[in-house]
Amino acid sequence: MNLTSSRLHICLLTVLAVSGLAFADRSHDRTELGHNINIRPGEQVTDATCFGCTIRVRGHLSGDATTFGGSIIVEDGGKVDGDATTFAGNIRLAESTAVSGDVTVFGGEVRRDASATIGGDVTDFRGHALMLVIFVVPFVVFGLFVAGLVWLIRRLLRPAPAAV
User: Fold this and answer.
1) What are the tens digits of pLDDT across the range 99-108?
2) Residue-level pLDDT at 135
3) In terms of CB atoms within 10 Å, which of 22, 58, 96, 134 comes out highest?
4) Distance from CA of residue 30 to its chain's centroid?
């Protein structure tokens, strides 16, 4: 994969993330960037997606809860009908709460009260070491590749020594 292809993939992912923000229906869906999402008791939200923030469910979330760099907290009898997924964050299920779908954590942990119910599977890829492998190691390898390329180009473009 070359540098142009990598840049194209990053730009495409950014456009997709931003377009999701633009098309979110504010009355039923919640999508935030850097601002916590609070679903109050008696409130119903379809889907909640959070980038760099926390989702706190005290009401009813009829869809999925997804965070990137944040946590999902279900408390005070809150209910999630879909899946709860977090990347680089934790999921906490307090007393008398429910998630009907799957619970998935990448680079965090699941904290669950004994009375909390989960209808689907629980997948827990714990720890920051996994996040290091997934996100940091590719950047280090890419940086070493670029440094090697720069070294090679400089060596090839070096002027030849003058003849004596």
Assistant:
1) 999 999 988 8
2) 72
3) 58
4) 15
Q: Give just the sign of the alpha carbon dihedral 50, 94, 89, 52.
A: positive
pTM of the shown model? 0.65
Please, which residues have CB within 8 angstroms of residue 42's CB and are 6 or more apart in sequence? Answer: 59
Which tokens belong to 130? 């996994």
| HSE-CB for 94 with a 13 A CA cutoff | 12
Q: What is the 3-state secondary structure (H, E, C) of the chain?
A: CCHHHHHHHHHHHHHHHHHHHHCCCCCCCEEEECCCEEECCCCEECCEEEECCCEEECCEECCCEEEECCCEEECCCCEECCCEEEECCCEEECCCCEECCCEEEECCCEEECCCCEECCCEEEECCHHHHHHHHHHHHHHHHHHHHHHHHHHHHHHCCCCCCC
